[in-house]
Amino acid sequence: MKNSETSAHALEPPHRGWHETGLRLQAVPAAKSYALEQVTSPVGRSTTAFRRRHFPRLSISLWNDWRWQVRNRVTSLTELSHYLKLVPVEKRAFSACPGKLPLSITPYYLSLMDPDDSADPLRRTMVPTWFEGVVGPGESGDPLVEDHDMAAPGLVHRYPDRVLFLATGFCAAYCRYCTRSRMVGHQTYGPVHSREAMERAIAYIEATPSVRDVLISGGDPLTMADDRLEWLLSRLRRIPHVEVLRLGTKTPAVLPQRITGDLVKRLKRYHPLFMSLHFTHPAELTPETARACARLADAGIPLGSQTVLLTGVNDSVETMRSLMQGLLKMRVRPYYLYQCDPITGSAHFRTPVSKGLEIIRGLRGHTSGYAVPTFVIDAPGGGGKVALYPEAVVGKNGNDLVLTNYAGGTYTYPDCGGSPGTEAC
Ligand code: SF4
């Protein structure tokens, strides 16, 4: 799996640098590193305990270096068993579904997981299990048929005024429920993210004046090297009809060290630039992530969140409320709650749609409207996002609408029943 990632453009330059220099963790002398370290970032309690236990000779400054985190990702079952007490369904994952989405977890994100509990929510989202080999009805590798809507390599043009630019196939950590698990971390899609392919995608956008909004995703675009990311942003920003740029990323959750002062300084040059941040559980809202979000928000980047509804991870009102309220405190506006897409082997993650509606009902009115995301299904077959709402209109009395509020009370609203401004109003 590592080999499949170490070619073409899947791995970003910082990675190669670490490999080429041959710098090894064991080479860091304890006393010297502690003498030299500059503690500039907050480190959460469980992360500190993890670092002391597994990397006692590592300086905090190196731990907080995002390139070190990427370089030391856990990518094999053997490595994983060093940190977590694996249970049979986890151990059998690799033999049950060879060739599937690779395993990758940053040491930082691993430090947030319970090593003794396979039901730990973050662990469920990242550690493969045997259930990924079970194919349920209606599942497919590309349920949103994005490949069909590729206007150029790596460029999905589905909606009238916006495009999805798949800039890389690499992520610091791979979510087991990923909609694009068919392409992320796999060498076969490498050419899609080559410079030549990107030039073709940019040329398409230049020639298509209806495109006013470009969402850069992947993979995770914030795993790209600063220069490469800035090259792409600057090329897109030069196109007169592209009004808005957006970045979709899970980096603030799995690799918050990546949000460096230098990166933020560069991003600020390309406003209006929005970010959609992928979060799944309140355990992700650590001091490190708070600092990453604060840096982005201070740079004037509007932050929205995207969350996938997942069985055993966040499928309760309490968990979701805690996540959404926590995000809002970090100046991240909850944006979308997604019904999990029916990708191959996802049945163990998918909830009934009624669960999402129950959660929205449990949030709306019970907390600030800013903390309530829109619940959507990305329609299989390429239909795009469809928003779902709990029923609010429960009857009609003549022209009057009978409404139910968050507490279950019923109220009547004197509707116009016709055109606005008529006598009935
Ligand atoms: S970060 Fe996004 S693209 Fe990467 S594996 Fe997770 S869901 Fe997929």
Please describe what this structure looks like.
Belongs to the radical SAM superfamily. KamA family. The chain is of the alpha/beta class and 425 residues long. It has a domain of 35 residues. Helices cover 32% and strands 16% of the residues. The chain contains 18 helices and 13 strands. The strands form 2 sheets. The chain has a 10-stranded mixed β-sheet with strand order 1-2-3-4-5-6-7-8-9-10. A 3-stranded antiparallel β-sheet has the order 11-12-13, with no helix packed on it. Strand 4, helix 13 and strand 5 form a beta-alpha-beta unit. It is globular and about 75 Å long. The site of iron/sulfur cluster has 11 residues, from loops.
Spatial separation of the terminal alpha carbons? 66 Å
Quaternary organisation:
single chain
Characterize the largest beta sheet: strand count, sense, and whether it forms a barrel.
10 strands, mixed
Strand composition percent: 15-25%
Uncertain parts: 1-39
DSSP, total strands:
13
Mean pLDDT: 88
Shape: globular
Helix count?
A: 18
How would you write the strand order of the largest sheet?
Answer: 1-2-3-4-5-6-7-8-9-10
Bound ligand species: iron/sulfur cluster
The computed structural class is alpha/beta
